[in-house]
Design a protein that fits this description.
96 residues, mainly alpha
Length: 96
């Protein structure tokens, strides 16, 4: 069921994305790219790794503060979130 015109809904979604932490947006893209055809076990493992990286980031602190009305500016996106770098510098690839 289409509630609004497509353009209006698209703009609403884009504004919601822009308001989020740049690290979380990059992590969502990475998770989708690396797991859309992967087995469920791999998807859950990858999601756990990404969430741990996000929870330890400055931008997560800023996002949490914004939820309580504190306007903390976001830092530039951390490249390791999107690039798939793991703690210690290793990079995992798909098992298939």
């Amino acid at each position: 069921v289409i509630v609004r015109p497509v353009m209006e809904e698209s703009i609403k979604v884009a504004k919601e994305i822009v308001a989020r932490s740049p690290d979380s947006v990059a992590a969502t893209k990475r998770l989708y790219q690396e797991t859309w055809v992967a087995p469920e076990e791999h998807c859950l493992k990858e999601e756990t790794i990404i969430q741990r990286q996000l929870l330890a980031s400055y931008n997560q602190l800023a996002a949490s503060g914004r939820n309580f009305g504190v306007k903390i500016p976001y830092a530039d996106r951390k490249d390791d979130i999107m690039d798939g770098k793991r703690p210690g510098g290793s990079r995992e690839t798909h098992p298939f």
